[in-house]
Amino acid sequence: MARSLVIVESPAKAKTINKYLGRNFTVKASIGHVMDLPKKTIGIRLPGEEEGGKKKKKRKAKKGSKKTKAQENLAGKIIELDDEKIFEPTLQIIAGKGKVINDLRKSALTADAVYLAGDPDREGEAISAHLAMVLSKPSKFIEQEPSVSRFKKKDAKPEEPAKEEDAAPKKEVVAIDPKKIFRVTFNEITPKAIRAAFDKPRQVDTNLVDAQQARRVLDRIVGYKVSPILWNKVRRGLSAGRVQTVALRLIVEREQQIRAFIPQEYWTIHAMLDAGQPPLFEAKLFKHKGEDIEVKNQEAADKIVGAVSKAKWQVASVAQKEKKRNPPPPFTTSKLQQAAYNRLRYTAKRTMSLAQKLYEGVELGDEGSVALITYMRTDSVHVSNDALIQVRELIPERFGSNYLPEKPNYYKSKKDAQEAHEAVRPTDAMRAPEDVRKYLDEDLFKLYQLIWQRFVASQMLPAIFDQTTIDISAGDYTFRATGTVQKFDGYLRVYQLPASIADREDDEKDDEGEGRALPQVAEGQTLRLDKIRPDQHFTEPPPRFNDATLVKELEEDGIGRPSTYASIISTLVEREYVTKNQGRFSPTMLGERVSVLLVKSFEDIFDVTFTARLEEELDEIEEGKLPWREAVKEFWEKFVIDLDKADDEMLSYKAGIPTGKKCEKCGQGELLERISRHGFFLGCSRYPDCDFIQDLSPETPEETGGEPKTEYCDNCGKEMAIKRGRFGTFLACTGFPDCRTTRRLVQGTRIAHQPDEPLNEKCTLCGNGLVKKHGRFGEFIGCSGYPKCKYTRPITLGIKCPKCNEGEFVRRGSAGKGGRGRPRVFYGCSRYPDCDFTSPHMPIAEPCPKCGAPFIVEKRTKIGTVHSCLKEGCDWEKIVLEAQPQAQPEEAPVPVAAKS
Length: 900
What we know:
Elements: E1 4-8, H1 11-21, E2 25-29, E3 35-36, H2 69-74, E4 92-93, H3 98-109, E5 114-116, H4 122-136, E6 181-183, H5 191-199, H6 206-233, H7 244-260, E7 265-274, E8 281-288, E9 291-292, H8 298-309, E10 313-325, H9 333-344, H10 348-360, E11 362-363, E12 369-370, H11 385-398, H12 433-436, H13 442-458, E13 463-474, E14 477-488, E15 526-538, H14 547-557, H15 565-574, E16 578-581, E17 584-587, H16 589-601, H17 608-622, H18 628-649, E18 657-662, E19 670-676, E20 679-684, E21 693-695, H19 701-704, E22 720-725, E23 728-733, E24 742-743, E25 757-762, E26 769-775, E27 778-783, E28 792-794, E29 796-800, E30 808-814, E31 824-829, E32 838-839, E33 842-844, E34 856-861, E35 864-868, E36 877-879
């Protein structure tokens, strides 16, 4: 009896499915896509081009010459916009996939039926459609040529074409009957879901395939048409993307907002009050004569402090209410990426990679390969009835019946969500995280635990809090104290909130006073003022995006799809358009300049609203409401106008962009901004007559770990300057050519390499002397026998780690991608990896004046240097003023500032 063939994308998925289908099925993997557009050409039938794909050229006919009929036939037909096959892609079998396809074809020939079981989304549908094409119409498609080197040996002889009689006879490839090819989809890899899918097989959904094809065509048009302009105007190897460039624009515009931001001073006033019974409680200035009040400077703050210090403090009103915090819905893809970053610090790419493994199946001992979660690319919060029944059995059994609502909790998906899909949830809620922990590595376990907790929490009762608000009058001023005490933990029993409010999602952020108890007071009761504290603050610019906030912004703006967010972000980093420093994205100089050029030249195409509308059109194609060629045609009509304009008018860094500044060296030429393989620089327009060059590579305190330091020549005493040579940057004496002293730079920085300092200690490994070394992340102790002996140890700061209370703080650092990014300095425990405590701020061995913590930290902010306490619950901060002339005795001291 012949078996049926099931084709999936990955071997891991094949292994898991094979276990459930039984002996009548053979499961094989296509290992991703099998067909794509050609590598070396655009592969799309575009208007204004010849059928062969060449651009239409204007040819001048020679005087008196006439084209022969043969010449006319050779000339390619120019494709028009109303051509019925306009924008048709030319698909080819991906290089190296021939063996996979032949194996699948061989199995399909003897199979009773072929089931295409790709993922339940556009990409999965396209893979299934392409598999059906290569199986049922094999003669139409050829495998792409593998790329070969364009460099040949000088004496290499051209290969002679094989003679027809010598050529091996071609084997005729037998086509598979399309009537026996079916499509099956399932949102989870479980026996029940798979049986249900195979009970109702269907044909490939052409609408889904068209939506994927439209996106692929649009992305290819932008990439192939815009990237060469960047090569001509900036440098080779750069790329532009339809969605990638809009995401870059968001990051660049946020950076511009931060630069343009001007901090505004404001003050808050806090009173510590005694109600005659514990605890003392804090109230904050709220209103003046019943109106909202802003305290803009110290003078106004001192005036208010003086007035209320002499006033009678009396309870004006007491309000108590019960407050509910509802459980969050189960995860969609974007919410999973946000929560995984906020709680686990996983990037979007890492999250999706781990989720893919959990979906396709992991080995669970004797059970074999088991899929632990449902399909992870979804924008729906829908949950199947079977899953609801199971989790409602789990909750009373595990947590108690008082945590289970009378009816299941139902959540509403956003308007364009696909309700046929489910939310990301465990395939079996009864399989608790601790049950599978021994089979999973740490990262997989943490992500599964997060998904399981979120799903279970979504079907529990809300958490209930008692919130008390006390308004206190002090003369014409009103102060308010708020306290919130948890009454019933509800869903928080399983899904705790992150300790840091900054890491919480919008619906998890609470009002002021969370966890703070207030004493019992009555209206009209007189209170005693214990102390009053005015705190200075400065408004802060919008924060740079991190993985979570960028995904949130992309989703809210309708840019891309949940399944593409991870690849968008990773592409920006890989292209070196952005860097990641302490988890936040900053545009590089290259990224910022490329973004400005593209947005200026392609205002429509890289507009946020236009890109979002295009995503909606792709959804309409998927729903069968819009023909895919119409959507691409509408895009093309706008795009081609901008394209011609950009080719002629876009500024060129290769030619040099005028800055309007005079050359510092010759005083005659104008400085032009240009780019070389080492980065951007200013050069004189009179080059080569004037060889003035000024490097524009950014040098910031973050790169050097402190303020930039001037280096002096050891031989002649003149300043050293950074120069570029064939092997990169180095320090050279400005007295050249009289003084030819040079010094190496510490790798990845612009800091001069310091000589090792011998210490009076021996290496515990080899017995050689130890030396103090200087690396890109600061000083450390190493063996003088390096590289034979690689012994190192950090130099501690003498401050105990607050987490383990055993190790001490050491200065550490990490580099950007490939060692080329900006180095990130941070401070961690000397007992790492046993203790993983870290802080981006430098610890200082001074006790906190407010809570008595053994150390404080130094932060670098937009408003300057700030000393702050890290202890949870303590809000002490103090702005460190720059060195100023000594204050006169009658001047008031600088007040202690509170957290901005």
